Q: What sequence folds into this?
């Protein structure tokens, strides 16, 4: 078997389809602090990708940028009016000119008020639209990810990337281009204007800018690393909360609230530490940068005083220069303050891209829709391994004809449920093949294959909504009459009719308002509505009491009639009439035959298990023997 396994692994490496979406998606999403996704996307490629989301908003974005530039240019009016008043209007006592100048400034400020409203409102709506599109793309991408992705990644962490990360991205989408464009515009315009006042004094001030850039560059890397770490810790808290809240009933049942608090505090502590590092980096960045801008004022004070003393600038020019220099410093401070949201947005977009770059579940080239299948199932030398585990299945050969029932029994962990997951191609095989009606399932599209298979599991998942909506989920285009008929066939209609709101009754999150039997019947009704030719029952009644099991079994008997059925069961009373019974132990078929054939093997695993379940005498002896030989 080892040689065969090696051969199959070698084949797998040669096949990009075999390794593709499922194996690649098993890789953990990066939570490393370097801010770089596993795809290794460059900063330039990241910017291009980010910019592509502006395309649907080109017109509004252009207007937003134009309004931002006008806001900056209007800001240049005040120092020019100040210079005019100090040099001409006030010395020459031109009262009318003073009033006109003041009125002009007021009018421009009114215009700027409306422009700022436009930028704030429509600019944020652009960011919201981009955020909605990214969330739409991410949700669509997550719907196409293989099962292996969800095996490796917690729901809370995925939700964190879809919510808080994308919110920061939307803030960057709005404020990023606006802050950069307005800051550059004001910086250049202020530099030119200051040069008209006194070029040498302007150059002295300008010489301090490289120092500010060096300080900003020094702390920018620390900020990016710290903010990425904080995002990872936030995702961990979300994952912990999602798990704790979902399992609150178990927590209360076992009175383990203190344990959950400990787990929460562990994540909360990591968040506090990550926040401490991020705020320390941010504090260094802002304090260092602010000191340089404060140093500008000292330079202006000293250099301007010297220039005024030596007659290189007059008093009016010096006063105007002091007022105007804020136009030079303001855009620099804007960029400094913007760096926090910039780092948040960039790290959030990197984390978004990291998921988007993971390969989706794909069909093989040439895969097609075979239509309605008849249900002849065959497993040929099937082998499969979960990541970071020993081989689960090896050399599985099983066959069941259309309308027949294949029962899988055996010890827990033997691979029964794994076989059920491989039939609808939730995971790709490591070796061998599975065919239905003689067609390899790898040659069918995943959608068409799964359309032909209905699944009833022990752990029923129901959506938060009404009874009607949950049954309708089996086939969304079904008529109300078809939904009611499915409920009648699942023996749940009479109970629903006793409810005050009937089929419109809300069942709560995951069907919390229903009993185990009621949830199971709902899931059976859902499959009745789907009406697939192939049925998988994965321990569908094992969690129910005997009375409820008998009632549910009647519904299952009707459901399986005429369908090819693969059933996993620990209670052998439910599989005695199966066409074939396979005993799965340690990842292989230990025994295979009908109920009578397997009972005819005196020391067989099935025979001993059957005697154990239906005979109380010598039960302890049988348990001991069974544990030694089969691992029960």
A:
């Amino acid at each position: 078997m080892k040689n065969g396994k090696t051969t199959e692994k070698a084949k797998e490496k040669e096949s990009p389809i075999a390794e593709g979406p499922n194996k690649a998606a098993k890789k953990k999403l990066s939570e490393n602090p370097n801010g770089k996704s596993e795809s290794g996307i460059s900063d330039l490629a990241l910017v291009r990708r980010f910019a592509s989301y502006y395309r649907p908003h080109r017109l509004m974005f252009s207007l937003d940028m134009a309004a931002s530039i006008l806001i900056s240019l209007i800001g240049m009016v005040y120092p020019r009016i100040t210079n005019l008043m100090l040099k001409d209007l006030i010395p020459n006592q031109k009262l009318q000119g003073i009033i006109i100048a003041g009125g002009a400034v007021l009018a421009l400020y009114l215009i700027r008020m409306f422009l700022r409203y436009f930028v704030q409102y429509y600019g944020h709506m652009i960011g919201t639209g981009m955020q909605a599109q990214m969330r739409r793309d991410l949700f669509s991408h997550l719907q196409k990810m293989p099962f292996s992705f969800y095996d490796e990644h917690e729901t809370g962490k995925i939700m964190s990337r879809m919510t808080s990360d994308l919110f920061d991205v939307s803030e960057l989408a709005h404020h990023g281009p606006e802050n950069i464009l307005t800051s550059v515009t004001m910086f250049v315009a202020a530099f030119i204007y200051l040069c008209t006042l006194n070029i040498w004094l302007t150059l002295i001030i300008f010489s301090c800018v490289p120092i500010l850039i060096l300080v900003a560059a020094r702390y920018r890397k620390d900020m990016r690393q710290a903010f990425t770490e904080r995002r990872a810790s936030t995702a961990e808290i979300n994952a912990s909360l999602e798990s704790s809240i979902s399992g609150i009933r178990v927590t209360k049942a076992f009175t383990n609230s203190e344990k959950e608090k400990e787990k929460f505090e562990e994540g909360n502590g990591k968040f506090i530490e990550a926040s401490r590092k991020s705020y320390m980096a941010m504090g260094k960045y802002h304090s260092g940068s602010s000191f340089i801008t404060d140093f500008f004022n000292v330079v202006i004070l000293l250099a301007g005083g010297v220039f005024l003393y030596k007659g290189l600038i007059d008093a009016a020019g010096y006063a105007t220069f002091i007022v105007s220099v804020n136009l030079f410093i303001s855009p620099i401070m804007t960029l400094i303050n913007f760096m926090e949201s910039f780092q948040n947005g960039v790290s959030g977009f990197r984390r978004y891209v990291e998921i988007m770059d993971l390969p989706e579940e794909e069909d093989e080239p040439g895969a097609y829709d075979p239509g309605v299948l008849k249900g002849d199932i065959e497993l040929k030398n099937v082998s499969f391994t979960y990541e970071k585990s020993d081989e689960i299945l090896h050399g599985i050969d099983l066959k069941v004809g259309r309308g027949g029932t294949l029962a899988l029994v055996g010890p827990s962990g033997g691979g029964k449920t794994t076989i059920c997951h491989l039939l609808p191609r939730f995971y790709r095989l490591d070796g061998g093949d599975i065919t239905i009606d003689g067609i390899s399932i790898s040659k069918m599209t995943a959608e068409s294959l799964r359309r032909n298979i209905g699944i009833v599991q022990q752990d029923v998942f129901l959506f938060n909504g009404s009874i009607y909506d949950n049954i309708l989920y089996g086939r969304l285009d079904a008529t109300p009459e078809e939904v009611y008929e499915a409920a009648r066939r699942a023996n749940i209609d009479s109970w629903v009719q006793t409810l005050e709101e009937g089929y419109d009754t809300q069942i709560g999150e995951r069907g919390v308002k229903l009993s185990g039997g009621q949830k199971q019947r709902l899931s059976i009704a859902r499959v009745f509505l789907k009406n697939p030719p192939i049925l998988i029952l994965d321990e569908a009644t094992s969690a129910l009491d005997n009375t409820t099991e008998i009632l549910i079994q009647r519904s299952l008997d009707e459901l399986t009639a005429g369908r090819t059925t693969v059933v996993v069961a620990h209670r052998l009373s439910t599989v005695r009439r199966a066409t074939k019974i396979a005993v799965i132990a340690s990842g292989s078929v230990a025994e295979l035959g009908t109920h009578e054939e397997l009972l005819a093997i005196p020391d067989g695993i099935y025979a001993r298990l059957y005697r154990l379940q239906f005979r109380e005498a010598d039960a302890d002896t049988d348990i001991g023997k069974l544990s030694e030989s089969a691992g029960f």
In short: The chain has 24 helices and ten strands. The first helix runs from residue 2 to 14.
